[in-house]
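Researcher: Structure prediction, please.
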Amino acid sequence: MNSVEIERKVDKKNVNYQWIFLCLFFSISFFHPITLLIFLFYLIFLVYKEKEIGGIKALNLLTLREVINPGLAISYGVLQSIKWLLIFLISFYLICSVVKLHERDLNKLKKYFIFFIIYIIYSILSSFIFSNLPIVAIFKIISYAIPFIGLLIGVVYTRNKISWITWLKWLFSIIVIVSFPLIFLPLGYLRNSISFQGILNHPNLFGVFLVLFITLYLVSIQQRIKLRKNNVWNYLLVILGIIMILLTNSRTSLGSTLCILLIFILFCEYKLIKKVLFFSISSIIMAIMIPNFDILYQFLQDFFLKGGTNILDSRTDQLGSLMKAYISNPLFGRGFAVPYISKRTYTFSFNYVVEPGNLIMAVLAYGGIFGLILFLFFIIKTILFNIKSFTTYIILPLSAILVCMGEMVFFSTNNIGIFIYMFLIIYVSEGVNIKSDVGHRIGKE
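Model: Predicted structure follows.
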């Protein structure tokens, strides 16, 4: 069901109250471990009250709370273990909802799910055999796979009850609007005093967040164009998102946004004359800028090189460690999302952290050439799963993949990985376009 159609059926007054309580409990979690614990209990209540819908909301909010600006909020700290426990419990709860799926939906999902499971099984086996940190690697695989499976089942099951695109638009819009005043305050530049990070903990992360934010609004514009009902507010927020991306100095985010905008223009439902008009105006703007080309060139050089001589200078250490892991075992890699160390150990610790930087290089380092092949099959299957509404929703998975080419958060449930999963899964759920029929469900609600 189209998110615009669902939006009409929702009791708006009730939704407004829900957002007020959500913002209230989320905000009080900033101040003290006790108020943070109250927020976690609120998420449990949300799951109890709204079932699968509450579970999906809770996972997204747990993710968002992890990346809030440290100048505004305390970290999870000693409650980190409780956070992980909630992520796994809620994910397992959503997985159990598989018995509620329409039989035809379930059969269709199986054809997609098999590619994901093959990649996960391969990653577990290759990490156990070839990684020098097998326990840590397997935990990271599980921490990626379980939430992804839970969200996949949960979103498909609830897709005709709630528009997840609309809900995420509201969530992301609140973050962007609240971040806006920080443009004029030092708190908005806390990380390095130069790049804008809003209310999140890193400028590059906020840049990624803004790309996803812009993508949601572009999808919404596509949906409304088909219904011949558009909203100027959507366009204004897209422009605001682009301005904020420039302030973050995030090269990955700017490049991803330009690619997404180009794809949007190519596939949007506007008539040909409007596309021609857009490109004409763009050409005029470029013609005006040519006399000031030196100024433009200097700006682009400063933005992309960041004081270096090569665009990859700032990624040298990250890519170097990935190449080292890959070269040491090019066929099978050196373990999922763990650093390459010389001595094998079966200890477990959250301190074994990697900053991969690039999705393709990360997958090669994690699982070698065979792992990359299986992962690409999974991504291709994801893209092909929703051919029917491809032009409307394709920018959802593409934006999730593009941002991970420079800021690799794809497998990072502890970061904003759940938002990445949501974008892939919403796209897939739109491909499962058969409405559920209670009489054909497997099991009972």
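Model: Residues 434-445 have pLDDT under 50 and may be disordered.
Researcher: Thanks, that helps.
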